[in-house]
Amino acid sequence: GAVVSQHPSRVICKSGTSVKIECRSLDFQATTMFWYRQFPKQSLMLMATSNEGSKATYEQGVEKDKFLINHASLTLSTLTVTSAHPEDSSFYICSAEGGRSYNEQFFGPGTRLTVL
Amino acid sequence: RKEVEQDPGPFNVPEGATVAFNCTYSNSASQSFFWYRQDCRKEPKLLMSVYSSGNEDGRFTAQLNRASQYISLLIRDSKLSDSATYLCVVSMNTGFQKLVFGTGTRLLVSP
């Protein structure tokens, strides 16, 4: 149990385009979903936290108009990187909290974004 | 100062060796503590939670010293499959459990 999927696993796009990443909890309802970003040789950094049906809470320094988060249901959250630039190239990982293991976060496999 | 500090390594050890990793955290309000394992280009996976009383899971032993704000992980009888990056993680309950990750310590176990 407690499986989280992400799609796509890898995406390459041109500068200026928008990219949508989906995060799904497959076998439990996620009360809260988290989006992280990891640059090479750096730690995972929390970008934002989202609860179903409400606006996401963004960490300091993360532009909410650039990284749009939609948490439409208890099993799906999406992150859209708008007008992507090469400096947005990173490993984006989501996690979900919920199910029987209250307070434990289950991580998705990540999405590697490369912006040319 | 980083919230969670770790020696990045790499630690190169032979199979069968015992290796120890340390981590310090700056926020005394941190409530929960964990070690995660991350393989190259993969998501982090929970290795174990860390308690003040110390806890052991097979070859892995974790210890927390709240007074010194220090966390350790000991791996005995290293296996080739232990090669990975080990992430020290602390959390605070801010309405939800906010995880703060260290940059990780890389371990390479050789035959």
Give an account of the 3D structure:
The complex is a heterodimer of chains A (116) and B (111). Chain A is an all-beta fold. Chain A is 0% helix and 54% strand. Chain A has no helices and 11 strands. The radius of gyration of chain A is 13 Å and the shape is globular. Chain B has 111 residues and is an all-beta fold. In chain B, the strands form 2 sheets. In chain B, strands 2, 4, 5, 9, 10 and 11 form a 6-stranded mixed beta sheet that branches. A 5-stranded antiparallel beta sheet of chain B has the order 1-3-8-7-6, with no helix packed on it. In chain B, a hairpin with a 4-residue loop joins strand 7 (60-65) and strand 8. The model of chain B has no long low-confidence stretch (mean pLDDT 93). The chains are: A mainly beta (116), B mainly beta (111).
> What radius of gyration of chain A results from the CA coordinates?
13 Å
Q: With helices defined by DSSP (H or I, 4 residues minimum), what is the helix count of chain A?
A: 0
Helix content of chain A: under 10%
Oligomer: heterodimer
The biggest sheet of chain B, with number of strands, parallel, antiparallel or mixed sense and barrel status, is:
6 strands, mixed
Largest interface (CB within 8 Å) is between: A-B, 20 and 19 residues
Q: In sequence order, what are the helices and strands of chain B, one letter per element?
A: EEEEEEEEEEE
How much of the sequence lies in strands of chain A comes to: over 45%
- Outline type of chain B: globular
Poorly predicted tracts of residues of chain A? none
> Which structural category do the helix and sheet elements of chain B fall into?
mainly beta
Helical run tally of chain B? 0
* Helix content bin of chain B: under 10%
Strand content of chain B: over 45%
Distance between the termini of chain B: 37 Å
Count the E strands of chain A: 11
Mean pLDDT of chain A: 92
- How far apart are the first and last residues' alpha carbons of chain A, in Å? 37 Å
